[in-house]
Amino acid sequence: MNTLVPYMNVLQKISTYWGAVTVVMLIIFLFMWLKEPRRLINGIKVLHNC
Predict the structure, then answer these.
(1) At what angle do helices 37-49 and 5-35 cross, to 10 degrees?
(2) What does the alpha-carbon distance between residue 41 and residue 7 come to, in Å, rounded to a whole number?
(3) Residues 6+ away with beta carbon under 8 Å from 40
(4) Phi and psi of 36, rounded to 5°?
(5) Measured CA distances, 12 to 1, 22, 23, 39, 41 (Å)
(6) Confidence band of 49 (pLDDT split at 50, 70, 90)
(7) How far apart, in Å, are the Cα atoms of 45 and each of 4, 13, 38?
(8) Residues 6+ apart with CB under 8 A from 45
(9) What is the pLDDT of residues 2-48, one digit of tens each?
(10) Residue 16: left if φ>0, alpha if ψ -120 to 50, beta else—which one?
(11) How many angstroms separate the CA atoms of 19 and 31, rounded?
(12) How far apart are CA 5 and CA 50, in angstroms?
């Protein structure tokens, strides 16, 4: 069982890292949307048309 401990620590670090990355991405996305809502709306419309 002791051999699994390092792997669990690594998994915890990866999950916290991805959690932080996701939060940062959401903040950037919200900032961009607040800064240029028209362009984002147009981009969504273009993606729906494809």
Answers:
(1) 110
(2) 43
(3) 32, 33
(4) -135, 70
(5) 17, 15, 17, 38, 37
(6) confident
(7) 48, 38, 11
(8) none
(9) 778 888 899 999 999 999 999 999 999 888 878 887 877 788 888 88
(10) alpha
(11) 18
(12) 47
- Report which residue type is found at 17: Y
Take residue 22 and report the two structure tokens written for it: 């996701």
Residue 16 token pair: 């916290």
Tokens 């699994």 belong to 4
pTM: 0.47
**Tokens 């800064």 label which residue?**
35
Residue whose pair of structure tokens reads 């950037």 in the numeric block: 28
